[in-house]
Task: structure prediction
Amino acid sequence: MRIQYQKAVVFILTWVAYASTYLLRKPLGVVKADLSVDLSLTKSQLGWLDTALLLPYATGQIILGSVGDRFGAQRTLGCCLILSALSMVCFGYIPSFYMLCLHLFINGAAQSQAWPSCTKILGQCLRPGERDSLFGIWGTCTFAGGIMGTALAVYVQTNYGWQMAFFVPSLFVGVIGVIILVRLREPPLGLPVADLAEEALPTGSHAGTATHSSSPTWTQLVLTPMVKEAALATFCVKIVRYCMFMWLPLYLHQELSYSRVEAGLFSTIFEIGGVFGSALLGYMITRYLRDKTFKGLSLGILLSALSFFGFYITTHQSVLLNQFFMALAGAFSCGVDPILTGSIPAHIGALGGMDAQASVAGLINGIGTLGTVAEGPVIGLVADLFGWGSMIYLMIGLSLLAAMATFRGHLIQMQR
Result:
């Protein structure tokens, strides 16, 4: 009974910790209309703000992904949340484009260690057979955090101004960071740490992985089977996700004539779909595909592409039907993310006795996040030159590429 209680505490605290990071990411998408008017920023400049946040977030995970393995994931997680909060307390009170970029850069660098640390802490508590389903449920923190971040930002922006949309969440995130340092403890603490020698992914031949005892090099991680496929899929999926996170409110406002408040609130439909998709997809893979994780991911991403097409063709037809396809797109494109960047790295990082879950998670999630670095300026430029419709076609193409990458991962998995 005590073990189950400890697992529940780890699950809840890591869920809240990672959800809180979105309280300091989502306001940027909500206040873009205000930044455009108050600071006279172009769409391209608004896109570069995305890059200022996501470039250090991506590179920090790739270069420093092993910090949680070396210095303790709990300590790393708590400190990164506190630094993230401090970086955004005064965001917007110095109305300079370059100061905005600096605040976002520090925030992104601090948050780069949140995902690897959370997945390492939680992954040590879960046995291989339960990772897909429980990581899927735990992964709802990403989309629930996004919903809460958007709703809080819309409320504070409407009543107190867009600068306060960052100040208020910073206080909350700082408190969560302190709680993590004081209350959270890393396994093992009597917890049933997953058997590192018997992973759910096929392990018949571990050339390049099983012989590494611990702390594998970056090159060894890249050469590990299925890592490249997972990273490419994550690269595409994250561009899609962050495009919708950062640009959907502005798209709804400018293209579909929603008010600013309506655009901010209705954009959460995408993330509401993500909550249900994340919770259900892992269960469906475990229950009906017998843990054939890559196959399930491939099917889910393919359905995401079809949902985006449905969203586009119903844009000017039925609002209810359009929002239904928006929710489906969120369910399938968001639902695969926690499995790609949480469950699979937890499997691979423990193969052959390695203790490299944070390193593998940081590598896959970091390479994936590099796609979001280009997302900002590319989407801004594409929208300026070709209109908003071209953005949806780009999302469909990227989803199809991700589906092919995960299917290749499935073929490799079946051969091993």
